Amino acid sequence: MISRLLRLIPPGTIAVGAGLGLLGLASYVHLAVAGHSLTEADYSSLSVLWSIVFTLGIGVFMPVEQEVARLVAARHSQGLPPGPVLARGVTVAAVVLAVLVLAVTAGRQPLADRLFAGDSAMVTVLVGALAAMAVAYATRGVLSGLQLFPWYGTQLGIDGGLRIIMVALLGLAGVTSPVWYGVVLVAAPLVSVVLTLPPVLRAIGGGPPVAWATLLRGLGLLTVSSLLSQVVVNVGVINVKLLAPSDVAAAGALLSALVLVRIPLFVFGSLQASLLPGLATTATTGDRAGFHSLLRRALGIVTALGLTGAIAAVLVGPWLVRTLFDAPDVLGHGDFAWLAAATLAYLWAMVLGQALLALDRHRGQALAWTVGVAALIAVTLIPAPVTLRVELAYTVGSAVVAATMAVLLFAGFRRTPTPARSLDDAVAPAVSGGIR
Question: Taking CA 366 as the corner, what is the angle to CA 361 and CA 369, rounded to the nearest 5 degrees?
């Protein structure tokens, strides 16, 4: 029975899921140790750094991984090496990183003053963490495209394992500077890349170059969608810091709460490895019934995950953030209810977004996230207590994204999905190291 179940699991799901699981555990350990070691003000600075790193890092470098993976997979099916794709991908990542570094450097002091209580060292850590993510996502694209999922999962696992070891050492040593807890986000990913680089180097090879248009065709819209999706899920902590700079307890408490209520997103990360390829295959072959069936099942699974997580979060969330993260007692059961509802809507949006991508509707996905962020901004500006505003903004923004995607898909369902491109081009490995 067990062997039969294992055959039903898509290749790479276990390896990637294990790596994601360890990386997810590392996030909890990282924030828990920091929460017990830092003052409220310093933990607030670390929380803002964490939110910016993952908003920008995942938002702009995850699309590079996905496009590199897609092109490497297509070339691999034709017996071509991935070297030219990696070269183009690294160049794109380097250019994007350079733009981010210039922007952060130009605003170094204002950023330090507004977000990090004047500590410019935190801005330096921010730059280093973004550089580490650029390198990690570029190499993961090659590992994913070549279906080297054990190596992919190993890179995630090393990253997570090193974070746990490093923050444990910081806690045992009594370190009380947020800078060192931020440095963990720089060192761990870089070491994980170095230790999993051999298969990438062995596979590089030569071959015909990749046209820029091939790589950049969907990258722009994909980047818009990816960046805006991270804004929806992460900007609340940053907004609390900007709207209520004197409330040093709120930002840290909110990040701790978000880490708890987003546990279902870690599970979705492993399911995602098979979702997009399955949807893309049925769409490309015109299997409308199969497409609808897979989409309904995926929505059913994430709904069950979201509701289970919501019940647990509402019941014990306030107690857990105080116990695990030493968070200030500023969030109640109602706060967790809003955050859990937002996470459920966000899960729906993630599934529906994969369906739009499978149908080659990058513009539709980008439009939905744009409308959602506009709704988030509108709610953030209403006159109400700051914490409630950002919670409502996360909920409304996620719900608007999901509703917009549903409308776009419903309109598209009136015609049978038809092949928009070749199967090799459409079915990209959908693993993601972006959940943390």
Answer: 130
Give CA–CA dist 434/58, Å, rounded. Answer: 6
Q: Which long-range contacts (CB under 8 A, 24 or more apart) does 107-116 make?
A: 114/241, 114/242, 114/245, 115/45, 115/48, 115/49, 115/52, 115/238, 115/241, 115/242, 116/45, 116/48, 116/49
Residue that has been written with the tokens 């929806």 in this structure: 232
Span 313-349, pLDDT tens digits: 999 999 999 998 888 888 999 999 999 999 999 999 9
CB atoms within 10 A of CB 95: 10
Q: Note the residue count of the chain.
A: 436
Q: pLDDT tens digits for 146-177?
A: 878 889 999 999 999 999 999 999 999 999 99
Cα separation, 381 vs 393, whole angstroms: 9
Residue closest to 95 by CA, chosen among 199, 204, 215, 205: 215
Instruction: Determine the number of helices (DSSP H) and then strands (DSSP E) in the chain.
Output: 18, 0
Q: Evaluate whether 226 touches 62 at the Cβ level (below 8 Å).
A: yes
Name every residue whose Cβ is closer than 8 Å to that of residue 250 and which is 6 or more positions away in sequence. 44, 240, 244, 328, 330, 386, 387
CB atoms within 10 A of CB 179: 17
**How many Å from the N-terminal Cα to the C-terminal Cα in the chain?**
32
